[in-house]
Protein: Ubiquitin carboxyl-terminal hydrolase 40
Organism: Equus caballus
Amino acid sequence: MFGDLFEEDDSSVSHNQYGKGKKLKTKAVEPPPPREFTNLSGIRNQGGTCYLNSLLQTLHFTPEFREALFSLGPEELGSLEDKDKPDAKVRIIPLELQRLFAQLLLLDQEAASTADLTDSFGWTSNEEMRQHDVQELNRILFSALETSLVGTSGHDLINRLYHGTIVNQIVCKECKNVSEKQEDFLDLTVAVKNVSGLEDALWNMYVEEEIFDSDNLYHCGTCDRLVKAAKEENSKPDVNLKDLQNEEEIDDPLMILKTILLQEESNLLPVDQLGQKLLKKIGISWNKKYRKQYGPLRKFLQLHSQTFLLSSDESTVRLLKNSTLQAEPDFQRNDQQIFKTLPSESPGFNGRTSCPHWFDINDSKVQPIKEKDIQQQFQGKESAYMLFYRKSQLQRPPEARGNPRYRVPRHLLSEMDAANIELQTKRAECDSTENNFELHLHLGPHYHFFNGALHPVGSQTESVWDLTFDKRKTLGDLRQSIFQLLEFWEGDMVLSVAKLLPAGLHVYQTLDGDSLTLSEIELADGEDIFVWNGVEVGGIQIPAGRDCEPLLLNVLHLATSSEGGKCQQLIEFPHVFPSNAEVGTVFTSLAIPGGVVLINNTESIGEKNWTTIPKVDLKKTFREQGLRNGSSILIRDSNHDNSLLAKQEKWITSMNEIDWLQVKNLCELESEEEQVRISATVNTVVFDIRIKAIQELKLMKELAENSCLRPIDRNGKLLCPVPDNYTLKEAGLKMGSSLGLCPGRAPTSSQLFLFFAVGSDVQPGTEMEIIVEETLSVRDCLKIMLEKSGLLGDAWHLRKMDWCYEAGEPLCDEDATLKELTICSGDTLLLIEGKLPPLGFLTVPIWWYQPQHPSGHWKSHQDRRNCTPSQGGIWRAISAQGAPGDVHAEVSLHYLGDIDISEDATLMELKSQAMTLPSFSEFVIPSPAFLRAWTVESKRPSRLLRADQQQLKEYKLGRRTEICLEPLQKEENLGPQDVLLRTQMRLPGERAYALPMNMVWDAARGWTAGSLRQRVADFYSLPVEKIEIAKYFPEKFEWLPISSWNQQITKRKKKKKQDNLQGAPYHLKDGDTIGVKNLLAEDDDDFSTVTDDIGKEKQKQLALGKRKSQEALRVQSSHVFSGAETPARPRGPEASLSIHVGSFR
């Protein structure tokens, strides 16, 4: 369902060891693929947005919602072109939703993108990579739409389409007085376990009567005493959730009869039974309800012959196939949904018609699914838990049927038409490029056969030619082209597929059929082709085919002493054998009289498992014995002992199944036992476990009313109390877990159990605890936490701890309740000093960053007086951009101060405001254009901020961003494809580098190693073949050489791709350090420095100290919690979901 999650799209090159130095073609950016045969468009996943995609597809397939949104024009919503204008009120979210729906309807592409829509939500890349609940998103999105559409004709769009009312009625059995309360809803929650269908679930939840009697009497206001009463809940949705339960449907006999017949397996019933089922369905017979208006039942069926088919004797009736009800639910999970589209409402593409069918929509992929497979698809843990229903009697106008352009605004129609033309043009261009592929021609006259394989005689330039050819042409065309290239060729020319093996080049099958295209004979991109006469090379007949494939094996045998005897030392050397040769030929090939042969097929050193080959099996081939390239063969005398061979034993361990929980006494009360094991199953209720633990620990019975069970994590930390009415499965507790029996009750359903701490540097287990109402405001919650912490003042704010156990985004809306901000029990809130800036503003810490350079950077006044700045506000760290060499291993970040600035301000305005800070007076900078801005992460410069006129909100900085400013000698204007790198030339004869130099590399033609090597060579005025370059990873003190010959072929696609330095393993970005080695002065593989050796040694010592401290912590924890598991970093709570909407009131 998910495809190959780990298949990378990074480009790569072929394993052609003779092809070094060849210029590789750059692959053009491919346009998105067109729609598949289903004619429906999917939505691309941004990393964790499958839940968003499922909801958007559901809304898109609801014509009433889609067309109501389309009815709002630019005069009400504004225009996306004006969204950056300061005074323009542009309702971005509905506009982007309109545009996305238009793309899903009309744009000929496999999948649409939601990037612009999530940008309008105010989401950063963090939100786009996180999973959330689709029901929560539905409510937040509807709320955001309602806010966005205030003051427009669509202000009631959500309320009009999805609103319903629940009526709670309590009827007094004595005086019959009715007490009634109404509640609005947009969706309903029902329990579906152990019920036959949705109607039963709705009946149980909202219709079934509840009786108040015995010990549960109701106080009647009219009678002014406790009486017996009955309670009912009735849902009155504007969109019907139950079939045939309103007067409109009961008055329509056609709809009722169709519904009854649809419920039959063959849509066939005897007419008498049809009448009986009608009576059971509506509680009244045909004659009493309909005969006066419509006549007898059989006459009614005859008059509607386009819907019903009566048998010749009029005894049975069948529902015609084209008369099905057009009302189907959309089944939806967090990441996938199933739709049934019908000709009347299918939003097809380009006017193509489609048949009624169920479709499985899974992000980008849309596939048909059989109706019988839906039940299997949505059962068990994959069960659908959010259902969208549509009124069965809603009819589409005739002009909407099969017309995807229906009600789409004109400006979007024009935009989609233009985009389709552009896509067609790009696909035509790409098709031409895609049909060209590269072949490596190995020329027979320049090869010789040696040691079982072919090897080039001279240079690779003479022996291997690269040819780019159109794979739609024939093999005869290829042969003719090669004849024209090789003017020296005489005689027959045979083309054979070859392959580079560890032993050398080996020839496989010969290519036949000059009339066949290269695609038809399945030649792959980057294929090796051997060009020869088909018989011999250099006078030697060449073995060809898979059977005689050469194997490169490691041969081991005892060395011969100078006296001619065998010594006790094993020698190892490589040797090539044909895979179809007998194993016994190893003796003749190596000129050994005889002996015993042992083989080993394992690859990992130190785990060799030698197997002796019986004499009978020496006639088997190497392939039959399972030998492959890299396998080892040991030859020894038959009378030699086995003392040189290591013996191994394998141990198998198993764990017994656990069916218990461990409960520890943490009530500060003495008991005979500190902990007990309680037998349980996944369906055991927590209350039973708690009571049994109190009994077995022999504690006071009073604890039954004032205690709770709290899980203990692997760190020994107490987690949120578990409600008594949960089962172990519902509470997410695993067998063998540790629980603490603690004083105090668990929070009620309307309360939250929260952890909180002061500051962002929180050690696990040091948090304080509090129980508050979920309706409490953020401001009141802050006051309570400050009071419990003993802190004063109002210069504090709250942040929610994220999953990395770090301070997340602040809780900005202090008037909002904890429930509205989706704060849940178990979340950790942090008290952070400092008031939050107003909405739309950022508080940005500014740092000064000045790496050492070979010459002429701006100096501070203090530098000119030979003084050093104060150390109070300086970070010193190994620079991510500076040199790692001995000359200058460190750079410093000097804190200048904080600035408050609007998100609408530009980067240039931020630099100008930073220059007004008092600490900035130490430095002499002519203008903001002489400053380069970086974000700061892990106390190091991280991301380069370019484009001075770009607004800060477009960088998606977030509220915790810190920025450092670097001085420049001259103004710079980096383009979007320019990459800023720090290059350093290695000093010959020394393990050190010269000072770093800034180099700008234009990566517009691709982030390839060849392009970067050429730029570095030009920068230092050296021949490209005389340099080697490597990227430095300061956190590991390691250098990774960058070579343009690292070639890989994907096994599945067998398609060569250009290497991309943005991907693994380089992840190249602005500010990275590139080491340069001049091969004219120094020719070795080492890029490291003395500082790297020292840094690695420090890291080893640090890791060793960390392991020791963890062991000490484990021992310490075992005294406190003897059953606690191995300590591990605690997992932080899940981040909340929100959509930011502007004010349109």
Q: What stands out?
A: The mean pLDDT is 79. Residues 1090-1120 form the longest helix (31 residues).
